[in-house]
Amino acid sequence: MSSTFTLHDLQCFDAVLRHGGFQAAAQRLHRTHPSVIASVAKLEQQLGIALLDRSGYRVKPTDAGRALHRKAESLLREAGDLKTYAEQLAMGQEAELRVVLGDLCPLAPVLQLLGRFFGAWPQTRLHLQFESVTGPWERLLDGEADLIVHRVAKSDVRFDWLDLGKVAMVPVVAAGFLPFPVTASITPQQMQRFTQCVIRDSARRAPETQQYVVEGAPQCSVPDMLMKKELIANGMAWGHLPRFLVEPELKEGRLQSIAGRHFPGIVEDLVAARLRDRPHGPVAAALWDFLGSHAPLLKPALGQVPRASSRGADRPAKAGRKSTR
C-alpha cells in the first residue's frame, strides 16, 4: 500500500460525501466531473480500501470510508486554517479597514476606542459607516465590511464574535405623553392608539418582519436612534431606546419607562463581529484583539431594563421576549 495520497484527493472524497455525489462535488470544487472521480479512485487505490459503495443510484460511504472521513475532517479543517493564515501573512498591513456601526452601538466609547487604535496605525485608513437593524449583517455578508459592532445571531456559524457588553432596550414615553398613569401593567391594547416610533432597516434586502412592533398602532419611522430619541422626548411618539442613550432622562423623569409584564423590554448582546471564513490581515487582527481587551464597554446597570412604577421608582427587570422597538 502506498501512502502518497494528496490533500486534494482527500478534499475530493470529502466533497463527494458532503454534497451527495461526484457531480455536485465537482461543481463545489470547480473541477471537472472525471477529475473528481479519478482523485477518489486514486485515494482508494493508494489506501488499498474501498471508500465508496457505488452499487446504488447514489454513491455512499462504506464503513471504512465513514471512519476515514471522520479522521480526515480535522485534517481538512487544519489545512483550511493554515491556508487562511498564509493569506493573512501575505496581505501585509491593510491600506483600509471597513467598520460598520449598528444602531445598538454606543457611539462615544466605540468611537473613542477606534480613534485611539487608528491613531497608532496611521498607515491604515478607517472607512466608517453607520447602518441600522439588519443593515450591518448585510454589509458584512456581502463583503462590504471587515467588522461590525452590532448584535448578531450567535448560533450563526458564519460569524466570529466578541462580547462587548449588554444593551437594555427600554420602552419609554415622555413625561405627560400618556393620559393615564404610567405603571408596569400597561398593555399593548392601551398603547395601540399612540404613534410608535421605529427604526428604518438600512438593508437593501430587508426582511418583511419587524421587531418590537405593536400590531395596529400608527407608526413613524426614523433612520437612527438619536432621531428616535428626539421624537419621543418631544412627545410625538413612544418606542424602545437603548438605556445608555436615555439614562439621564430616565433619572430626571423627562422620559419614563413603561416596562412591565406586557412590555418587558429586551437585553441585547452587543458584539464585534467578523466573518469566520475570511482572511483577516494584521491590522484587522490587531483591532479585534484591541476591542476584546477593552470589553465590556458599558456599565452592567445599562444592561438592565428599569421597570415602570406608579411611584416613579426604577427597579431592574430581567430581559423578556422581544415585543416592540
Q: Percent of residues in beta strands? A: 15-25%
CATH class of the largest domain: Alpha Beta
Shape: elongated
Second CATH tier, the architecture of the largest domain? 3-Layer(aba) Sandwich
Total number of helical segments? 10
- Binned, the helix content reads 25-40%
CATH topology of the largest domain: D-Maltodextrin-Binding Protein, domain 2
Q: What do the pLDDT scores average to?
A: 89
Derived structural class: alpha/beta
Summarize the structure.
With 325 residues, this protein is α/β, with parallel strands linked by helices. The chain has ten helices and 13 strands. The strands form four sheets. Strands 3, 4, 5, 6, 9, 10 and 11 form a seven-stranded mixed beta sheet that branches. A two-stranded antiparallel ribbon has the order 1-2. A two-stranded parallel sheet has the order 7-8.
Give a description of the structure.
This protein is an alpha/beta fold. It is built from ten helices and 13 strands. The chain has helices at 7-19, 22-29, 33-47, 63-91, 107-120, 135-141, 188-191, 225-233, 243-252, 282-293; strands spanning 52-53, 60-61, 96-101, 125-130, 147-150, 159-174, 196-199, 219-222, 239-242, 255-257, 266-275, 305-307, 315-317. Helix 5 links the parallel strand 3 (96-101) and strand 4 (125-130). Helix 1 packs across helix 2 (22-29) and helix 1 (7-19) crosses helix 4. The longest helix is centred in the N-terminal third of the chain and has 29 residues, at 63-91.
